Amino acid sequence: MDSTGATARTPRTRRRRDFGGTFLLESPADTLNRTYDGSTPLSMRGLPPVSGNMKTPRHSYHPSGIPMDDVVVDVEENASLLHGKDGPVLSPTQRKIKIGVYGVLNTVILVPLMISFAQIIFRDPEFQPYMNDLVKLVLVSAAVHQICFTCVSSLPFAMGQVQDAGLIFLSAMCSSIIKTLHETRGDDFSMEEVLATTLFTMAVSTAVLGAALIVTGKLRLASFVQYLPMPVVGGYLAFIGFYAMEAGLSMMTTQSIKEPADWIKLADWDALLLSVPGVVAGAIIFWVNSRWDHMAVMPVCLATMLITFYSLLLVTGSSLDDARAAGWVAEPPPSPRSITQIYGFYDFSKINFSHLTDQIPTWIAMYFVVAFSSSLDVAAVETALGKPLDHNHELQTVGISNLLSGLGGGFTGSYLFSQTIFTLRGKLDSRYVGLIVFVLEIAIVLSPFSIIAYVPKVFFGALQMLVCLDLMLEWLWHARNKLLPREYGIVWLTFLSMVFVNLELGIVVGIIIAGFNFIYSYIATASVHRVMKRSRVERDLRERVLLQNMRMSIVTLELEGYIFFGSSVKVMDEVRRHVLVTTTEKQEAQTSTLTGSSPILSTRRSAPSPYVARSLEDTFNDDLATLDSVFDKQEPHGYSSTPKAGGKSGPAALHAARTRYFILDFEKVSGVDATAVRSCFNATKELLAQHGIALIFASVPTDAERLLRVHDVIEKEDGSGTGSLVFDTLDKALEWCEDELLVSEGVLPLSESAPATTGSNETQRWQLLDELLPRPDGSHRKAEWNSLADTSTSQENEDVSAKLTRELGEMYVTHLFKQEGDTLYRAGGPVNGLYFIGYGKVDVFMPSKIHEGLGPGFRGRKRITRVCQGGLVGASEMILHKRHQFTAQARASSSIFFLSKSHYARMQKAHPILAARFQQAMLQSMAIGVLESPSSIFFLSKSHYARMQKAHPILAARFQQAMLQSMAIGVLESNLTDD
Questions:
Q1: How far is CA 332 from the centre of its chain?
Q2: Which ranges does the record mark as transmembrane (predicted)?
Q3: CB of 965 within 8 A of CB of 924?
Q4: Residues 110 and 412: beta-carbon distance below 8 Å
Q5: Quick check: helix, strand or coil at residue 368?
Q6: Long-range contacts for 854-863 (Cβ within 8 Å, ≥24 apart)?
Q7: What are the average pLDDT values for consecutive 10-residue runs of the chain, which has 979 residues?
Q8: Backbone phi and psi for residue 370, each to the nearest 5 degrees, phi listed first
Q9: DSSP class per residue in 109-137
Q10: CB atoms within 10 A of CB 45
């Protein structure tokens, strides 16, 4: 039954008996949940046990893993999944007998279930005199569903019947029509009109539902119907259990129990006497079915109830008529109707078509719930099968069965997960099992007697209590461990809304609350967080040290997801929390707020604000505070990492930590709404402008950029306006901020530096390269362009063999002069040597074709790094003897020194000390690159390495080569990662 299937979709944790006799906890990972048929779950005894605190699952190749011998996976056809490796091979006769047995067992379980479902659909007292005939209509519909699934489904063992997911909606339609007739006519209406109208309404709803499911599957929109929130579905499934309990109590007591207020009717002694045995029997079956795991459990329980009932009649000397008179068994119909007479209920002359439009909201809810439930059933079968299924095809199968069932005057249905898995575990890949169920159900319909006239009401009441306990305990109790607290609360709110208001409003309330919960969760999620990044510009040691000391003055916030009116508040809070200003500025901000003034800053390249100018010259004799404490009357946050001004280096430290540039990275942003632009980003620009902080945007999507530009948050496309700066990538934004910081400290960035003339002074050219190389002691002594001629006096005492003279330079090194746009090498080309940048700048990038070939989401070419004066290009590839992975291109007029591999090898032999300087340059360049990347480095003690160089120089050379290769790999791998 699929009420059990609903449980099987989210199996509860229960205890099982191990072979050793001890009790172990069985989680959903161990087995699928037990179904009402009592079938054995898929065996997992081949899997290694998983520890409760083991967060990293063991690999399939772990030596302690035990080979699986009872489950076959990764196969081509469904049929092969049904045959275990150790299962006996059946003869044709044995196979036929097994198919027949499974067909009969399925029928024995399904027929009582369909009778219970009929009593749920037609639970109103007006339908009780016709219950025998209505049960046969439900069985006809169940047979139609079964033959459709047997013929159309991709699963030969599929079982499809009238399903619980749509029952409540059909019952709601019946109750709605009955209620409307009572309100408009009182008791002045005929049951012929009621039967014709309700049966026709449900048949049309079922047929239209089937057509809608077929269209959904044809358009491959199965994933669309799965957007219904799981807590809402859980509340609905719990309500099915509650509904089944009320229907069972109504059937056993012959009282109308449809609302919580009707429960007072159970206070009568006769009602308690008739209902308590069914409640107790259902609870016992639920406990037994959860305790023992065998295919015979459910049939034995059903047979036990019948044997017990008739045994009590025999012991007490009561007849079946006496039991009917006491209310234990339903009265037989005075004159049993044939199937053709039953279909006479569909009298078109009696149908009141005015009631059809009232059921449209109920039908819409039924469509989503049935489609969602069917998708869950398919997913559950898919899990048990171990092979992916086409959800859209299976949804079309459900649609076809509902369409034909509706055209035949039937009711909604879908996969019956429990019986489908029951047949699967029987290792039967024959469609004859479903055909047998179809034939037996039709035979029962054509039989001249009524089943419910000979089976006690306690029997059906116990089945409905079984459905009630299973669904209500699963979703109202066990779900607390499977859902977040707020989601668990939504389950209860949805359930209570359905119980105390109505079904349709309960679903709407649940969806609305789930929507607000999603908004709250989305806002609470860290959609914005600070990142510490630097540009990919390779700078010299002096610039690196300066920028490292002032790294806190550039704040970068990485935004994620969709920025809307709700998340904009969190963005503003994060901005205030990460910006550092002086307490003097805090007081001025409070003053300007009180006076209503708001000095808006236009952060342009050519016109820095007086606030920025003042911040650069501030003596910083006060403290720093974050902006979230600027407008309150509390003390500053006391940024723990910020030094106090009273220290020895306090002013300099505060000067370096004070925020000057604020970058918002939109790389992971999917979109922005207009409310967020006005209430968040425009307000952020004004807030930062008051404190002389430049707001910068990076990697803004096209639609978001248009909104930001329309609202004057960012500059116009031609660079005009008062908006903030916007850059294509975060790397470019960081590069601009770093250059501005260097300029503010009186240092012209090397990427913008060049000699006054580009003459061919050979002496200065080679002297420049000598200055760029590390000294023998590992130090650098690079001079500015206007003082190159004055550096000779400082080199008098150096080793002459380590000095790069003009003669040695021309012997080993080739000087190149590249204009903007010239290519040094291309990706895929052979590595011939490495390049030293004398002045200018060179971009190393991954070409568009290679970058976009990495997979979806990679667009355009990607800049790996920008190399300026003193930097090296191609060192990693040269060390690893690989082809170039990237392309290098000059971005300005550049003076470049090229050292080929062959010349470097000659230098190592003829001038080893000079070669050591080149090797040291490569080592330092790659070491800095690795340190500034997330790659790992092996550490060797400096003192031990120095001792090794003296005592074991050959061994030390091997370590040095290993370091070079390791760092070369680290640099290459870090370059391949995204920013």
A1: 56
A2: 99-122, 194-215, 227-245, 266-288, 294-315, 432-452, 458-477, 489-520
A3: no
A4: no
A5: helix
A6: 862/978, 863/536, 863/729, 863/731
A7: 41 37 35 38 40 44 42 40 55 88 89 89 88 93 96 91 88 89 79 92 95 93 79 88 88 84 86 92 92 81 92 92 90 83 91 87 90 83 80 92 95 88 82 94 89 89 90 92 92 93 86 90 78 83 81 91 83 87 68 48 40 43 66 45 44 74 92 87 89 92 90 82 86 91 80 54 81 71 43 50 83 91 90 89 86 72 83 82 86 91 90 88 74 51 69 70 65 55
A8: -65, -45
A9: HHHHHHHHHHHHHT-SGGGGGGHHHHHHH
A10: 11
**Can you tell me the distance from the alpha carbon of 495 to that of 492, in angstroms, rounded to the nearest whole number?**
5
**Strand ranges in 797-931 using DSSP code E only, listed in sequence order:** 813-818, 823-825, 833-839, 842-846, 862-867, 872-873, 887-890, 894-900
Question: Helices marked H in 711-818 — which ranges?
Answer: 730-744, 762-772, 806-812
Instruction: Provide the residue ranges of all domains of the chain, joining segments of one domain with +.
Output: 92-516, 528-747, 763-772+804-976
CA distances from 445 to 464, 468, 654, 714 (A): 22, 27, 89, 75
Q: What is the DSSP code (8-state) at residue 640?
A: T
Fold assignment, 763-772+804-976: Jelly Rolls (2.60.120)
Amino acid at the residue 406: G
User: The tokens of 420 are what?
Assistant: 């489908």
What does the alpha-carbon distance between residue 167 and residue 383 come to, in Å, rounded to a whole number?
26
Q: Would you say 927 and 870 are in contact if contact means Cβ atoms under 8 Å apart? A: no
What phi-psi label fits residue 21: left (phi over 0), alpha (psi between -120 and 50 degrees) or beta? Answer: left
**What is the C-alpha to C-alpha distance for residues 711 and 705, in angstroms, rounded to an integer?**
10
Give the Cα-Cα-Cα angle 718, 721, 725 (nearest 5 degrees).
75
**What strand order describes the sheet that includes 823-825?**
537-538, 862-867, 842-846, 887-890, 823-825
- What sign for the dihedral angle of Cα 693, 717, 821, 864? positive
How many whole angstroms separate alpha carbon 377 and alpha carbon 163? 11
Considering the entire predicted model, what is its pTM? 0.64
- Span 385-406, pLDDT tens digits: 778 888 899 999 999 999 999 9
